[in-house]
């Protein structure tokens, strides 16, 4: 069978087309992953988060290594009294846990209900200090690197201190307080002060509502120990 | 004969043209969605895999070191009763400060952003309402929670919850929704405290977030992984 020139040409063209289509599919399935910008953004946040966790874990490894070293030498070295070493460790842990009285530079913050005249029909709640205001300020202070925080002489520790609204008063560590609230914090004075005074901080919102907020820095703030029980029922 | 052939070829070309156009449209419409299959994407994904593997290795390393430390302590405790008492006391304070891994009964709260609704212009993001997380954690504390973590970050004395961009920093680690909050304590008390009428769960749900509270028989909460050193505060007697 003799093919005409035209038929040959058509054959060549269809073969070319087939190759092109195959190529197209190939590029689609090659290893390159397609992500929308949104997904890419989520992935990069995830990456950032994992990376900072890595630094955290690395510091933990370092700390554990040095602890093992310290224990090992304390145990084997006759010069070091292991019991005394343990007592020192207990003191250090107690300090971190908030069970010791502390002293250091820091700030004293006074918050009390506003004294301005209410606008007609205005809700008096606007100028009153609420439990969530105190919580947000404690959070701001922690973010500024506060090492110890006390409210009206009650040490704030994480799992045991709840700051709860009880009508016109606020309950902290199961003790009831009325305004003014005095928050003391130990840490870098500049950081702590700006955490309260900076624009965009929670206290600025409070001030704009009319709540009275005042910050004073001090070279020596004394913060009492947490006085609750250390007992667990559900923990293993 | 010649004419008929041409018609068929023409028809085939039209069909093919439509197919190719379709294919192009399909790729542009769904696969790329405005993004480009650049190297950047592959880079991010590859780096993520590397970082994740590294993290796994470190977690194992920490477990191994912790074991080693426990062994040293235990062997020392076997030698005298005084040392044993002191070690027990030390471990009790360590647990209080959140430096140990703990297990127990409790609840697990999952909070997530609502599914994207194209009709609503503004997207709800729980990270922007992080004060609600503070409320939830305070609520759990007042219901007697003994240990709390958010997305594996243990809550300790220095823990902050901080809005940073469109995510939340906890223990200076950026985390993004869904937030999984674990709390150890009496499951029914904790569940009741957050699910109380006009309580925090209802509050969150009314704001449009997805909230799920589950009572769990066996929860595990990891230790605080950062370091806690006081630079300003000194103990006074």
From TrEMBL, chain A:
Keywords: Coiled coil. The keyword Coiled coil applies. It holds the Pfam family DUF881. Residues 47-81 form a coiled coil. InterPro entries: DUF881 (IPR010273). Belongs to the UPF0749 family. PANTHER family: UPF0749 PROTEIN RV1825, UPF0749 PROTEIN YLXX. This is DUF881 domain-containing protein.
TrEMBL record, chain B:
PANTHER family: UPF0749 PROTEIN RV1825, UPF0749 PROTEIN YLXX. The keyword Magnesium does not apply. Gene3D superfamilies: Protein of unknown function DUF881. Belongs to the UPF0749 family. The keyword Cell membrane does not apply. Residues 45-89 form a coiled coil. InterPro entries: DUF881. Keywords: Coiled coil, Membrane, Transmembrane, Transmembrane helix. This is DUF881 domain-containing protein. It comes from the Bacteria. The chain crosses the membrane at residues 7-27. It comes from Fusibacter bizertensis.
